[in-house]
Amino acid sequence: MRIFGAFLAVLGLVMVASGAKYEFGEHPRFGGLAVDEAVIKQARRILEQKLEVPTEWGEWIFYYACEEHNATLAKRAEGHTCPVCGKVYKDERTERAWITSQHSRIDNACITLAQAWHMTGEGEFAAEVWRIFCRYAELTPGWGRHDRWGRRGMMAVIGGKRYAQSLDDAVGVIAQSRAYDLIYNWSGITAEAREKVERDLFCETADSIHRMYMLYDGKNNHMTWFNAAVAMVGAVIGNEGYLDRSLDGSKGFRWQMVNSVTAEGLWYEGTMAYHFYALQAVMATLEAARGVKADVKSESEQARRMYLAPLTQAYPNGIMPAINDSDQSSIFGHRTAYRRAAEFFDDSELRAFADGAPLAQRGSEVLSDAGLAYLRQWGESPVMAILDFGQHGGSHGHPDKMNLLLFAQGREIFPDIGRLSYSCAEYKTWAKQTVAHNTVVIGRRSQQADDGKAIAFGKTGGGEYVVGESSGAYDKTVLRRALILLSDGTLVDMFKVMRSGKGELVEWVLHGSTAMAIEGEGKRQEVQGLLAKEDGYQHLDIKEEIEPSDVVKVCWQVGGDKTFTTWLPDAGSAKETLYHGTGIGYALSQRFPVVIRSRRGVVESLFVAVHTATNDKWSGGSSEGRGFVSDGKRRVHWDGDKVVTIE
User: Rounded to two decimals, what is the model's pTM?
Assistant: First the structure.
């Protein structure tokens, strides 16, 4: 296995520059630590626990959850128990998922113990870390490669040894490398023991991580962690081959920082969860590179921009929307990470945010490379509309071209519910289906992966607008959506569908995060059964079907004395059927209201909607592929292409 690095070089997978590139100085190479009494106290508590290293490898951590409630299990005397329903799990998969949590717990404990030794010089802290490392050196070579689908050996391409993924092995060995760097000079380490630990723990893990290098997706966040792990191991044990492979390989760190980060500084997968996750690995690689004096100046600047980019993505209240495989979280919860980044880059802008500065009030903008458009209006009641037109985002992307998210009246009103949990079936059957998003579904089938584009963006009298377009989400179909944010915070929303060939069922979908009621004239009846049994429709609980005869008013109950209304001015004239009910929200136990506008036999059609906090009634419709709306004082017109006018 020691010839693996040379083999990669022969294949041209490692692009090695001439001359000395690394300086292996004294340890700790990743920086020292100031004395912290809280860390020392925690380390003493860890010593009292007498940690036992599991002799078995672990399963995917997401399997440690109740299948019905998606709740994390708790280990009790009777077994692994769901805190919601009390169901007890005793199967091997669940047990091994719990073992994974214990391996992770030990990794974190080793860092704390190593920090305590570095701060105090008390040998018992270093001795415990070294005992754990020696035990892992005995176990690691005997653990075969496995993955969460039950595959073994070479068939487990993304599988791991200690964990069920090489990704988790990478995260673990980074923690071990940090701890080893801190206790490297402890006098209790013999030369023989050091050789065994470096060979059978650190090198064994690093080689396993890169064993399937040729088959890995070079852009993916997994590769970012693989590069970070091998760089950290290379830096701590002084292995130039590992550093060459991680920094300069054909899928190495330098390549990734060019190809996996958008021009705006966002991670290409289009999710804030994975942006910050990948950024942790990026910082670990930079830390390793700096520790051996490698030149990473340009990559450091790109990483600094990766910290600045999320500051532009949050809603006015600091919440970051759950686009693609993400979860709602607050940008303010990352201030500690920003403080570390400010110190690492010596950056005043990052430091200001870390120290409590509010988010900047940015204007409207289009992030063409990331595939996101933001229409913003500030003031007493800020409004922010997001149009997600692409890029798709790889394996963590969702089929949701032209998806709309809206913040108004102090809260998110039209959400993207994100990913739920990977361990529950609804992640694939709901969260990754088009009908779970605020866009258009054709034939009750989910969209295909596609990278859309913004074809227009600008200002016109009394408003700002953006037009997005996708031509690959459905075969022989162009989806085009125009969002126009007026000066009073009203959002005009026009969605055009153009097909070549026979007509199809087209459905415009809108999910809300708050209770709603529908007003308007028309025939109403209860719905019996499902609209469809696949592509997410099986998770909809449709309550009522309406055949509108006039304008429809959807009233969102945003709380207190605040109101918000969606007008569907063309609902009656378009001869559509309107359904309303609920779908899954941010959790399996949560239901969000949904409105579906259904039109049959569509070759070309244009949906018109107006979302507003004002009391004005809006009328309008479409003619010859053009859309128009009016509240009696203003008239907004879209030519169905790139031109928006407000009169």
Answer: 0.92
